[in-house]
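Lab notebook, bench 4. Still working through the backlog of constructs that have no structural model yet. Next entry is a single chain of 69 residues. Request: give me the C-alpha cells for it.
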Amino acid sequence: MKLSHRLLRNLHLATTPVLGAFVYASPLRENATFVAIVQWGVFPVVAGAGLLMWIRPWLARRAADNKIP
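Model written out:
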C-alpha cells in the first residue's frame, strides 16, 4: 500500500494535538478510556506516520541505487 506524503503529513498533524492534550492535561490522563485510546491508537499513528516520513527519502535513494540500468 502506497501512502502519499501529504496524507501522512496530515494524519501526523491531525493526531498530534490529542497526544499533546495527553501530555499537558492531567485531568485527561485520569480517564482510563482516553489513556487507552492514546496508547493503542493515537500514539502508534503519530509515531508510524513520523517514521515513514522520516525514512522514506532514504528508502527511495536506496531503491534508486539498487536498480540495474
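Notes after review: The chain has three helices and no strands. The helical segments are 5-24, 26-29, 32-66. Flag for follow-up if needed.
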